[in-house]
Amino acid sequence: MFKKSKRKIVAAILSVLVILLAGSFGVIYLASYTELTRENRKLLEQYVEAYALWRELDTQVPRMGEQEKIPDRRHLEPPALELSTFYSVAIADDGKVLKVDTADISTLDDETLTQLAFEILEKGESQGMQDHLIYRMQDKGGYTLVAFLDNTLILESAGTLISYTLIWGGVTLVLLFFLARYLANRIVAPLEESYQRQKQFISDAGHELKTPVAVVNANVELLQREMGENQWLSNIQYENERMSGLILQLLDLARTENVVPQMENVDFSRLVYGEMLPFEAIAYENGLTLEGDITENLYVLGNSVQLKQLTSILLDNAARHSAGGSRIGVTLKKEKSKAVLIVSNDGEEIPKEQRERMFERFYRLDTARTGEDRHYGLGLAIAKAIADTHKDSIEIRCQEGKVEFLVKIPLLKMQVL
After folding, report:
1. Residue 169: phi, psi to the nearest 5?
2. What percent of the chain has pLDDT over 70?
3. Which one of 244, 299, 317, 397 has the fewest CB atoms closer than 10 angstroms to its CB?
4. Is the pTM of this model over 0.85?
């Protein structure tokens, strides 16, 4: 129980930290990438605005007044613009390529750059990104300019940032995992200690009460022999028997939780069938129908005494909560690598909040009952303890007017194969 609580605490702490780290690094990465890309687009826009084909071609003659409209780049352009590498393709209105500038970069030739420019021209988008190149297209009057700026450096920087983030994040999560385990142990330690003391108290109290209960019972029998039948002695004996039953269940619970049972290969099919036989008479007396569907030769590693007790508790619980004329079903089948025991009875659906408490000590659905039926709300708690000892799972399902208790026990590996 406490191991599961520790795992949940560790998982919760790590989940929160992972979300915080991923969110922080994600925001930093996106903000950096967006800002750098925005700056590159701004530089590309400045380049396109300042571009004049007559400056690039000696044979091109500027139109009247155009020379005065072109700013002097040496005075107006920022240093980043001078240090950046641009590629451009100037295309006339009739589709003729007027000028290709690859900036003497070996990775891009005139043909490749021209093909990219025509693809962009065909799409008609004024700006965007093609592969690793940021582009901008603008009508320059008589020709269209498609300019590019290489975004590879930003992408590589982003990739490097992500790589280091993942490495550092992995190392951090490992350290945080051990920190979370330490915190979980510190958080659960007082609860675990209190729980262990409670279990020890139940065990000690049960053992201490056995002797006086036995003495009272012996004295009552002696008095009855001397005095004969007496109402007051009968009441004492009745309450003493109730107390004895409660003590025995408490000791069973303490023994199940504190003592590691001896495990052996158990024919679970035969065991369940054997526990059904005594309940046929009980079911008949109460007007119930007991039906079984048992898959043969299902072997598990467990303690036969505790598994018999588990099966008996579930059958007894189904019989006590079934009305006359209803049906009790017992199914044992194989699902993947587990043996699944299902004990069901006809009954109203149990609310979810009550289902979650069914395996608590002394919890009963009928709060008005006070133990006159020799049941004290410990049976299902004992069943849960047995399931935990065998590393099994036990759960309650309510569907189609039936209440089902499911127990899943791992099959022997040699049998699974």
Report:
1. -65, -40
2. 82
3. 397
4. no
